[in-house]
Fold:
Amino acid sequence: MTRLQQLQRREFLRRASAVSVAGVASPWALNLAAIGEAAAATQPGDYKALVCVFLYGGNDYGNTVVPYDSASYQAYATIRQSLATPREQLAATALTPSVPLPGGRQLALAPQLTKLKPIFDAGKLGVLLNVGTLVQPTTLAQYKAQSVPLPPKLFSHNDQQSVWQASNPEGATSGWGGRIGDQFLASNGNATFSCVNVSGNAVFMSGQQAVQYQMSTNGAVAINGISRPLFGSQACADALRGLITAPRTHWMEQELNRVLSRSIGAQSAVASALSSLPALKTSFDTANSLAMQLQMVARMIAARQALGAARQVFFVSLGGFDLHDFLLAQHPGLLSSMGDALSSFYNATVELGVANQVTAFTASDFGRTLSSNGDGSDHGWGSHHFVLGGAVQGGRFWGQLPVVAVNGPDDVGQGRLLPSTAVDQLGATLARWMGVSASELPRVMPQIGNYSLKDLGLFA
Structure:
């Protein structure tokens, strides 16, 4: 092989995850990106899973975790005007954290998140306050003076989704979920299932070596042409299988057929593993798309030994949060879907006996403005997010509680929160819980060196 061919081959392999641009329209293409099995075997009981629940569109923090003490609620209601949740509706979800908030302040979950309150009260769910994309710790004065680097294209959906998921703007080729997966490829008996996406495609799940394995809520996505008779002919299906798996002399054809062969093997392994599982006793709402994604995650976790998995990262998502209009009409339903799905998922991990080994967290493009535009809220920056799981030291709030004000000390305008906690700090904390060493942490979160606080205290 010539030097040019070697370089071309390495570039082809490096860009294997580029098939992810095919998106939901071609889910089978993502399955082709499965990488080779690692040599190390998994150890029984040595398992951890991280689950990213991404809320596409920018979730409205103001009506998700709501000020409840009298003074803060009055400030919130005055700013939000017609968007404010009536205070009497918050009594059942008012939170009593194990570590009281300063100044006697109180917060409540949205009324639609009632199923999450028992998990909070049990100390298995907490709220991370005012987290968002940053390059380094940034004060309001520095932001106004533009004296420190800021995330590119603030308030832009595509770019902030990418910065949240990858610590880089749109066009990034790897995300921190995939980079966590990179660290554990050799820990999994089958590295194909290190990063599993049940939502379509997300840069969060692409690593430097790890490639996201895409599934549907029904299971592995088969290649239709070989999974059943092609044009009514089994002979045609067999011929196609031969064409796409046979050894080739050209290195590009050989690589394509190699990943196709492993994709076929992965589909067979998933189908076999899932079919042998007993049905979950925990109920999931079949009309709730997020719940069905999380049900599949739970089933994959249940099949972890059959699939040779010791460390896994999962991705699920719910869209529709870009509510410039109709916030009161649509946001409550979205929150209900999220809360019900997370509750069912946590209960399923308890049923499976893995609650202490599974951590889920929410994320979103950005928060939104606290001020109302009349019928909705506009693009913001920092937001509040949930972290839940048996290992979580929950029942409390982490981070700094922002002042409820427009143009206040935590606000860059219209109630857009200047994040006091960086996504990089959250990612580093989760990566360390998964088992990433301190020396390898910069490979997962390249900007973590800008922060003195690298562990947010989410776990004991």
